[in-house]
Design goal:
The complex is a heterodimer of chains A (171) and B (146). In chain A, 53% of the residues lie in helices and 12% in strands. By secondary structure, chain A is mainly α. In chain A, strand 2 and strand 3 form a beta hairpin. About 4% of the residues of chain A have low confidence. Chain B has 146 residues and is an alpha+beta fold. The longest helix of chain B is centred in the N-terminal third of the chain and has 22 residues. Chain B is elongated, with a radius of gyration of 20 Å. Chain B starts with a helix and ends with a strand. Classes of the chains: A mainly alpha (171), B alpha+beta (146). Strand 3 of chain A pairs parallel with strand 8 of chain B, so a sheet runs across the interface.
Chain lengths: 171, 146
């Protein structure tokens, strides 16, 4: 009886609550104690009935009204399913382009800023590279304009030579 | 919204910084020499003009001397005036530089002549700046990043 007092509370223990030592001692006691075998059977019966009752109770609840309520709150245009897919809770709420359009329709300032900010950044980079002279190579070239001389350009391996030909102050 | 305003401000600040940074770039070192070329006399090129031999030998002038030399840091579009022995002047303007090139403008007011020359970093310009007189003429040579 003293042993039953010790082991009876353990009968309702959940899996993992008892140490392996306690588990083995409990099993040894149950094997030799008819009273505890009866208690264990009652315990298992009550536990099984409770789980079953809960499941039955949940199954009796009808969630159709809840689902209909959720769907009613979503605008019809927002849950158009892509071609080949039926609309429903599993369908994407918005198609990609429609989502972008809807977003920018409701955030006009943000849309304008999203266009202006990259443009400003590009302008900044352009100005920097243009002023810094890094925008690319330029082909060497010579342009000579003279109102009094006849310029001649000689292109040598070391660079251009510009001469005034055919005009001498002696002549 | 506040974030966007900050981002726009940051971009504008970067643009302004880039522009001012480019403005604040140091000038380009340029070596300008005044040369006298003669058709008469013993042929020869002054020792300090040896680096110009390939260009000078392409002309009909056989004797070359250096009259003056100046080396300065030139700012973009700021004219540098070079005096000629005869009393004239030549104006040299650094128009722009790119990665491997420099563009100069050479103005000879007395001859109403203006040239715009773009050369590679390792080249030089030899430009006649006076008409030939008694078989002699003056030239300027311009070399960026000497």
């Amino acid at each position: 009886m003293t042993e039953c007092t010790t082991y009876a509370p353990m009968l309702s223990a959940r899996l993992g609550e008892l140490t392996p030592d306690e588990e083995s001692r409990l099993q040894a006691h149950i094997a030799g104690c008819a009273a505890c075998q009866a208690r264990l059977a009652d315990e298992q019966a009550v536990s099984g009935m409770l789980g079953e009752a809960l499941q039955r109770s949940a199954a009796r609840r009808d969630f159709a009204a809840f689902a209909d309520g959720v769907m009613a709150r979503i605008p019809a245009s927002a849950w158009k399913a892509p071609a080949g897919r039926a609309p429903g809770l599993g369908a994407p709420a918005l198609s990609g382009l429609a989502a972008v359009r809807a977003f920018f329709r409701h955030h006009k300032v943000l849309a304008a800023a999203s266009a202006v900010v990259p443009a400003l950044a590009a302008l900044g980079l352009f100005l920097y590279f243009e002023r810094a002279g890094l925008s690319g190579a330029v082909e060497p070239g010579v342009q000579v304009e003279s109102e009094t001389m006849a310029p001649v350009v000689l292109d040598t391996s070391d660079g251009p030579v510009i001469l005034f030909e055919g005009d001498s102050e002696d002549t | 919204m506040a974030r966007l305003a900050k981002a726009a401000f940051l971009c504008a600040a970067l643009a302004a910084l880039g522009a001012s940074q480019a403005q604040a770039d140091p000038g380009v070192p340029v070596r300008i020499r005044v040369l006298k070329g003669s058709r008469q006399g013993p042929p020869g090129v002054a020792p300090q003009l040896q680096d110009l031999t390939a260009q000078l030998s392409a002309t009909a002038y056989v004797r070359w001397e250096q009259s003056a030399e100046t080396q300065a840091s030139m700012d973009f579009k700021k004219p540098a005036s070079v005096s000629l022995p005869g009393g004239g002047q030549v104006v040299v303007i650094l128009v722009e530089t790119k990665k491997d090139t420099a563009t100069f403008e050479v103005q000879v007011p007395a001859q109403r002549t203006q040239s715009r020359l773009t050369i590679s970093k390792d080249k030089r310009i030899v430009h006649q700046v006076t008409p030939e007189k008694a078989g002699e003429a003056y030239f300027v040579s311009i070399r960026p990043w000497p």
